[in-house]
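Reminder to self: tokens first, then the designed residues, so the page reads top to bottom the way the pipeline ran.
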């Protein structure tokens, strides 16, 4: 066999081996993306996988709209049912909530017991982040109420939304960190959620200021004293979205 033929065969073998390795690498990359996507938002996963450096602790100041949601009276219900039944009910409802948030490109920050914290305008900028959060909230309420008409037990939700400056980034230790937002904005959104009643969506005045007036019908609750906040807060409740404003 001539030298030229051997070289040609060797190049062909190397090309096949290179293609095989590239295929295996892509499969491994896709598997990692899928696994990480089960535990964190897709936007955070992409930032991790495309970054040339390892993640580090720290954050940056960023305007964000923060949404908190929980199910009313879920704890008493959990005491009446078997644990596996409670998990099934919670997972069914959290699926409704998660799809509503993701449909507006919101980032699920965390699941907190029977509640959810979500971010808009972080980590990816969204000029209409306040409206996206409100549309997600309306969808959550509508879907959970609709679910309760055909399934038992029926649950209600309460939601709080506030917009303001947060520190967004990796919080924790070098060995174990969490991408999240912290600050008074987060605390106020949580307080607005806690002060709600069945199927109410409480919005701060700062969030309302960013909403197109033709998009939503609101009910003014007036200035409210919120626990942990030194000044009173203008609070509105979302009545409904006007037609054509559902995303």
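Designed residues (247 positions):
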């Amino acid at each position: 066999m001539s030298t030229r033929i051997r070289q040609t065969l060797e190049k062909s073998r190397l090309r096949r081996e290179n293609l095989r390795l590239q295929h295996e690498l892509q499969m491994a990359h896709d598997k990692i993306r899928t696994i990480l996507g089960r535990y964190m938002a897709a936007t955070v996963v992409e930032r991790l996988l495309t970054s040339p450096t390892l993640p580090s602790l720290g954050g940056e100041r960023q305007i964000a709209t923060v949404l908190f949601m929980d199910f009313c009276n879920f704890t008493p219900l959990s005491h009446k049912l078997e644990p596996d039944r409670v998990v099934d009910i919670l997972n069914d409802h959290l699926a409704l909530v998660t799809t509503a948030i993701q449909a507006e490109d919101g980032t699920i920050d965390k699941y907190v017991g029977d509640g959810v914290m979500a971010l808009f305008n972080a980590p990816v900028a969204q000029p209409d982040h306040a409206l996206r959060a409100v549309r997600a909230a309306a969808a959550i309420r509508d879907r959970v109420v609709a679910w309760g008409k055909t399934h038992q037990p029926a649950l209600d939700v309460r939601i709080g939304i506030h917009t303001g400056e947060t520190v967004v980034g990796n919080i924790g230790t070098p060995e174990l960190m969490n991408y999240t937002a912290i600050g008074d904005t987060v605390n106020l959104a949580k307080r607005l959620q806690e002060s709600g009643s069945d199927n109410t969506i409480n919005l701060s005045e700062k969030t309302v200021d960013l909403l197109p007036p033709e998009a939503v019908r609101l009910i003014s609750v007036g200035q409210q004293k919120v626990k942990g906040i030194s000044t009173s807060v203008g609070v509105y409740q979302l009545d409904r979205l006007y037609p054509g404003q559902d995303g």
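The longest strand covers residues 157-172.
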